[in-house]
Amino acid sequence: MTIQKLYPDPFMDMFNSEIIRYGIDKRPSAQNVMNVLNEAIEITSDCVYRRIFHSDRG
Q: What is the pLDDT of residues 4-58, one digit of tens each?
């Protein structure tokens, strides 16, 4: 039995802590993050307020 790591890429609404969109992959990649980011942008496109997408690398 081989143990594998999974890398989550969540995008959370900081107002109400709701996960807007997430992705999971077997390896970290910018492509997966960008795919999930584009989906999060599309999901929030009807927002009447300014949206800010922040990357917390902390």
A: 999 999 999 988 999 999 999 999 999 999 999 999 999 999 999 898 888 776 5
Determine if residue 17 is left, alpha or beta; phi over 0 gives left, psi from -120 to 50 gives alpha, anything else beta. left
**Which residues are paired to 18 by β-bridges?**
13
CB within 8 Å of 40: residues ≥ 6 apart: 11, 20, 21, 53
The DSSP 8-state label assigned to residue 1 in this structure reads: -
Q: What angle do CA 19, 25, 26 make, to 5 degrees?
A: 145
Domains of the chain, by residue range, sit at 7-43
One-letter amino acid of 28: P
